[in-house]
Amino acid sequence: MKHLGSFHKLLFLGLLGCAQSTLANVTLPALITDNMVLQQKSEVALWGWADPSETVTVTASWTKAPVKATADAQGNWLVRVPTAKAGGPYTLTFEGKNKLTVNNVLLGEVWLCSGQSNMVFPVTKRPNSGSYTGIINAEEVIPKANYPNIRMFTVKNKVGDTPQKDVQGSWAVCSPQTVGEFSAVAYFFGKEVFEKTHYPIGLINSTWGGTPAESWTRKDVLEKAPELQPILARYELGLQNYDQKLADYKTQLEAYKQAKVADPKTPLTAPRELIGPTSNKSPYKLYNAMIHPLIPYTLKGVIWYQGESNVEHAYQYRKLFPAMIASWRAEWQQPSLPFYFVQIAPHRTGNPELREAQLLTMQTVPHTGMAVITDAGDSLDIHPRNKEVVGHRLALWALAKEYGQKNLAYSGPVYHDMKMEKGKARLTFDYMAGGLVAQGGSELKQFTIAGADSVFVPAQAKIEGKSVVVWSDRVKQPVAVRFAWREVPKPNFYNAAGLPATPFRTDTWRTPTQGKL
């Protein structure tokens, strides 16, 4: 027995030594691994963990000049390394009590790609997903996707009650074998930027379907803004008696499923999904687990496709979306971080107020841009499959604003102002790109007009030079005009560059979701 006790003692000491050795090792976040892309011509952040007070030496093969950091009392360390112009492959070495080497590193352009399911939507069909049916031209696109200088890091879905230190994921080199699981919008965006600039492209895909913008927003941002505090109040109210609510929900859901099986044509509504403590729709928790751990990885910019899950509180999105953008910029310490986003596509569950909130964000928040896709929606499918046009229109903004592509049209017409002329409204627009166009005819569709009674009626509209004239014989003294102001707009109003006009209204009358808590 004495011998056995000595054995246990030796085993304990050995395990303790292994644990101490493990603690001594320099470790890196998931982002800093083979095949990564770092932002060119900048000072990029590289970080990780080690023993408290341990010295970590970082050497980049493009400079040979090492940079050193000392881990703090919690073992955190961070260095900033100057990067050269686009190129590679290079290596990075990290050395403390151990040595790590990261291979096949490229210097190029790094874009964070985030949002809900339309940004998740992969190039190829995802079996049994229901939602992810693949892009319309997958058979043509996939065999040609031989772009080793385009890489994508896909963040594993996770919810976090508190800000997390790391994510799960890895960098995938674009090829016909890997591109199928790439976010299609991000892929087409990256491909076009690469083809026009020849810079390596790193795409960080942090997305989750069905998620509202508050899930991606830091908690204190929601707490400090009076307009956003109701989001947290709704969430906390939903958590009260949650176990009983969950049991009731499961019972209702089972009854709904059985009724649909018994009679599939019965017009039933599924019970509303609960937002519980582990829900991906709960506020701030995706920020904690899927955005915070990416900071401070140096970015060129952000592309964003989200909004469908905020249509019930569309007016609130006017405050929420800009607040989220501002907080991300502050966290990354990049106050002018470009942020280009997609206006939600036409769908029967859509809301013109949400599109307006997105338009107002573009007009009021510097260094933002909006891709309009009113011509690329599907009234019955909230996931339209033509993602190439979406990536292309996002890329136009980046190419024009970030990469110096001259004389490149990047936006469709945006309403500027209105004047009344003898019972008709004359509207002017920005971003005309050589002129205004009514595709498929001489008259513009989906304009409505109203008098002081706020009752909108269908209007006639035609292009006259650099303006649009709108009128109706039913409204003798018009005061307001709206364009494509509906759930499923199908307008024909473009500029000469073939980019569609954004829906808009000239009035500021109260909308259905205004004031909704």
From TrEMBL:
GO molecular function terms noted in the UniProt entry: sialate O-acetylesterase activity
Signal peptide annotation: 1-24
Keyword list, A-Z: Coiled coil, Hydrolase, Signal
Pfam families for this protein: SASA
InterPro entries: Ig-like_fold, SASA, SGNH_hydro_sf, SIAE, TonB_box_CS
Gene Ontology BP terms: carbohydrate metabolic process
Domain of life: Bacteria
Coiled-coil spans in chain: 232-259
SUPFAM superfamilies in the record: SGNH hydrolase
Domain Sialate O-acetylesterase: 286-395
Keyword match Signal: yes
Protein name: Sialate O-acetylesterase
Upper taxonomic lineage: Bacteria, Pseudomonadati, Bacteroidota, Cytophagia, Cytophagales
